[in-house]
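Troubleshooting entry. The earlier prediction with 6-O-phosphono-beta-D-fructofuranose gave an output that would not parse, so I re-checked the input for stray whitespace and re-submitted. Clean input:
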Amino acid sequence: MSVKRIGVLTSGGDAPGMNAAVRAVVRTAIFHGVECYGIRRGYNGLISGDIIKLDEKSVGHIINRGGTILYTARSKEFMTEDGQKKAVATCKFLGLDGIVVIGGDGTFRGANALSKHGINVIAIPATIDNDIGCTNYSIGFDTAANTAIECIDKLRDTMQSHERCSVVEVMGRNAGFLAMYVGLAVGATAVLVPEKPIDFEKDVIEKIRQARFNGFTHYMIVVAEGAGSAADIAAKIKQSIELDPRVTVLGHIQRGGCPNGRDRVNATKMGYLAVELLLQNKTNRVVCTHGGNFTDEDIDTALAMRRDIQNMEVEVLTAMTGI
Ligand code: F6P
């Protein structure tokens, strides 16, 4: 089948670099003489036909912008068979020969459903959680991690001055990749992630005690949101030892801001590859990257794959905290 017209959408939580991926999809399509339409507001836009024609100019000066110019959503309607049928009808009505979807695992499940209804779909991983099993890297992670690191560095100044303990909650949904990376980068006293069972006395109190023995009078505890709330952890610390921790929930600030170089370049390569795959009439594939190489994987297989926190990260953290 010759590909003449494609669509692109962003879905789920936004991630810095989504715009760079949209730009790459549009520019690659046009380079091959293929028309490109932006579908707005994720799968909701596919159901309602909320589309916008995209040309070279319309994606100019967005490579550096955070968020997504296409808006995003988590569509409840698209999770139903009825919603999916409406989306397929829109694709057929518009004559879309394929769609590129940009987002996390929820977005991939949507792509999988579309593909099973006969629509050619290629997915691009974009989530600050970096929890997509088939790829080492998802767009947005590096920028989000660096934003969190910058915030925590600032926090450390005031913590150090007041000789305090801080408990900082980092996003990641059910995954601890962001928290572990950020914790290592800021030199945290302890990092709590959902992937590792938590022994509060050993993993938090003993680490604070060890830091005190090492001569420190301020303590940074980084907790992944999936491992518990910073407020609860601070309360438990207060109960156990003579400290009055301050709580910071970084929240959505981590998802905003200009994508950094790594996210722009990965997004551009992934957007390019996604269109090349559509042109080869491939469907139900997700673009992946491993150690600088870019490949693609079947979405069914990808959804069954899990990533885990590397043992090395835990070992390094243990060595850095001395316990
Ligand atoms: O999946 C990205 C993410 O930012 C998670 O880290 C977080 O748990 C969730 O989205 C927050 O979602 P919302 O923006 O709907 O509050």
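This one parsed fine. Residues 100 and 220 are 41 Å apart (CA to CA).
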